[in-house]
Amino acid sequence: MRPIRNPVIQGVLSRLMAGWMRLCFATIRWRHENRDLVEAIWADGGPVIIAFWHSRIGLAPAAWDHDRGQPVRALISLSPDGQFIADAVARLGFPAIRGSSQKKESPEKAKGGSQALRDALKWLKSGGAVTLTPDGPRGPARQMGEGLAVMA
Question: Is the pTM of this model over 0.85?
Answer without folding.
Answer: no
